[in-house]
Amino acid sequence: MTEKVPFLSLVRKRVERQVQDMDTKEYPAIWLQAAGCTGCSVSLLNVINPSIKNLLVDEVFPGSHINLRFHPTVMAGAGEPAIEVMIDTSREKKGGYILIVEGAIPTAKDGIYGVVGEKDGKPMTMQAWVETLARDALAVIALGSCAAFGGIPAAKPNPTECRPVSEILKAKGIKTPYVNIPGCAPHPDWFVGTVASILLTGLPKPEDLDEYRRPKAFYGQTIHENCQRRAYYDEHKFAKKFGDPGCNYELGCRGPITHADCPLRLWNGKVSWCVGCGATCIGCTEPDFFDITPLYEKTSQIALPEEA
Amino acid sequence: MGKIVIDPVTRIEGHLKVEAVVEGGKVKEARSAGMLFRGLELIMRGRDPRDAQRIAQRVCGVCPTSHSIAAALNLDSAFGIADKIPDNGRILRNLILGAAHIADHILHFYHLVALDYVDVARVAKYEGNNTVLNSIKDFISRGELGPFVPRYEGDYRLPDDVNEQAVAHYVTAFEIRRKGQEMVAMFGGKMPHNMGIMPGGVTSTPTVDSMASFLWRLKELQEFVDNVYLPDVIAVAQVYSDYFEIGRGCGNLLAYGSYELDGKESDLTKRKRFFRPGTTSTSLKFGQFDPGQITEQVKHSWYADSISGKHPSQGDVVVDERKEGAYSWLKSPRYGKAVFEVGPLARIMVNYVGGNPAVKSLVDSTLARARLKPEHMFSVMGRNLARALETKLIADAMTDWVLQLKPGQPAYTSYKLPEESSGMGLVGAARGALGHWIEIKEGKIANYQVITPSTWNISPRDDKDQPGPMEQAITSTAIRDEANPFEIVRIVRAFDPCLACSVHLVNPKGHDLGRFRIC
């Protein structure tokens, strides 16, 4: 019979050995903010497990650390030294860094509506940054509806000719793989889950993404399919004003045409979600959601429920 | 003579560039400019007025709750229901705003401001058992120091123990502010961009269990504010006490008032609010607030001079990109043609001189303990301190508000959409006085104007060439090291700028942006 060894000490030995054997693999990341509102960044701060502290300083998985080198809202540096971080990373870590874009890309008048710092003495437009940084990235994550689809700044009449990241890449023939994580704001789990899958199993395969390059793991079903008020819809019981029991379909709910797992995942520590607080879904994970208007009228794009 | 250019200014919301001309070691002239615009006011034109509730909020993802309150008050007044919001709706709006406000101020101090004073890299020397600090020590030892390095060097003065504690609290504060956002989501559905606040009230109906759960979260926030946030602000202020003399600014303060205590008065300027509206200055005299005194001036902005000096309800946007002497996308809001600063400092000092007993006693006791005078509040540290003090006042007031809710009773009332109308929504947002104005014609939005707190504070020179509040605060500041201009970024961040909010949009007619000089 073998000598009994306390379980915890076994674990500890194993962990110690791992730490000795394994160098931490660093995944440099650049988080570029374009025409947006910083809401996607704030949403990420709301992540729970892992926490934002885990993401910033700890190994997010044993042996892997995301090295967030540039993020305008959290980084210590400012001005030229901060800009140099982006440029140096794209040169030194060619093909090895993750580019995260938050916000749409203004393209009117050569992109002059949105400028971030200078490069070689000239103002750098957001469009120029995406073109410069995306080319040599390992992958691009278009985070939030603005980066993924144009979002609110691209709503009609799209005064600054905002474009999604995908169109910028296409126009320049940039082949770097990209993923869209829409939402206004996107749930932090959708972002962290996507990054985690890249770290653990590599870049997403075509079958992992839907027609809009959204990960099916998070956007595979409609709001309507999993809605807590679905039974009311099936029974044709519709709320006439906010606060009523009933399905919010006649108040303009976009649940039937919106793909996301909000009703199951819930928001902000799982305390609620849009329909959970009595409001409607406004379809914020879908392309052009701010042009399917008015937001608070039943939309003709949703077929009426069939009589039972 | 040197010129300091900081672009981008980080740890703020949005895209800001600051330029300072330094002569004889002092800032001779400062200019600030927004670097992005999106055109939300233009996107709103021609839409259903209710859509403004959702679009206006997207002005800013850091302070969306303030915009959702301003939009709701604006639409309430345009729809003729400002005096018909059920008490539950009024109180839930206060609670949602309060929770966001507390979370926002904690985020500001620990995550936007602290890295100007706290030295994360020094945790490498830490010898102790704190697991958080040891994990940061491990992080530093791995050698990849982003996002904490690069940074300005040469003026981190906190003693080791205070510094270590502040780094540990930087981490705790992430958790606490997250809980504040959870409180918003409890009644607002989600955060950022709550869905619950609507013209007519709030979509959610309070229940006993949601009230209890909200209260316990509030208690945790209150404890953090009392035992960690406020003491940390004071500890940092004591070590950097010279910053009570730096960044004085324009000396005039304006507050709109916030947190509705009366649902039956439709006039926002007469309504009883937890923070009262008003003005004051370094003379510490109280002045009544009159929204008719607000104008927007454009002499140094890229807009046609013909629209200068208008009240926001008559506001227009006609671009003039070739205008000589213009250097910013921001207009210059002025009150009675004078330069006014808005924000927590304004809110606290207006209520201090305006006879709010809770504000008076908290400010007096804090100043006495720190051996400071009220005039020291007009400074970098004064702004950071005012923010912490008002966080405590709001957190302390919210418990009673929760208990005033009537579980199971509606928080929302219906209304009929008007064909022609106009409205105004004024609120004390986390960053200061926030105003929304709407004009409705043929049932659609004909005009929607927003003046944000940062438009006041970061505004460029006006028609009389008076620099904006932040420009004045930077001017005459002594710069110790032009390569590491700590003084400038500390002044800027004390205003908590929010640039996504502040930029107006161009008229679709006749603009040629290719010729715009961006700064």
Tally of separate helices of chain A:
13
Record field, number of beta strands of chain B: 14
CATH superfamily of the largest domain in chain A: NADH:ubiquinone oxidoreductase-like, 20kDa subunit
Give a quick account of the main beta sheet of chain B: strands, pairing sense, barrel closure: 3 strands, antiparallel
Output the CATH class name of the largest domain in chain A.
Alpha Beta
Fourth CATH level, the homologous superfamily of chain B:
Cytochrome-c3 Hydrogenase, chain B
The main β sheet of chain A shows up as: 5 strands, parallel
Taken in chain order, the helices and strands of chain A follow as HEHHEHEEHEEHEHEHEHHHHH
Give a description of the structure.
The complex is a heterodimer of chains A (308) and B (519). Chain A has 308 residues and is an alpha/beta fold. Chain A has helices at residues 7-21, 39-45, 52-57, 79-92, 108-111, 126-135, 144-149, 165-171, 188-201, 216-219, 223-226, 230-234, 262-265, and strands spanning 25-33, 64-70, 98-102, 105-106, 115-119, 122-125, 139-143, 162-163, 178-181. In chain A, 32% of the residues lie in helices and 14% in strands. Chain A has a 5-stranded parallel beta sheet with strand order 2-1-3-7-9, sandwiched between helices. In chain A, α2 (39-45) packs across α9 (188-201). The longest helix of chain A is centred in the first third of the chain and has 15 residues, at 7-21. Chain A starts with 6 loop residues before the first helix and ends in a 43-residue tail after the last helix. Residues 1-21 of chain A have low confidence and may be disordered. By secondary structure, chain B is of the alpha+beta class. Chain B has one domain: Cytochrome-c3 Hydrogenase, chain B. In chain B, strands 1-2-3 form a 3-stranded antiparallel beta sheet. In chain B, α4 (87-113) packs antiparallel against α6, α4 packs parallel to α7 (208-239) and α6 (160-188) packs antiparallel against α7. The radius of gyration of chain B is 22 Å and the shape is globular. The two termini of chain B are 20 Å apart. Chains A and B meet through β1, α2, α3, β2 and α4 of A and α1, α2, α4, α5 and α6 of B.
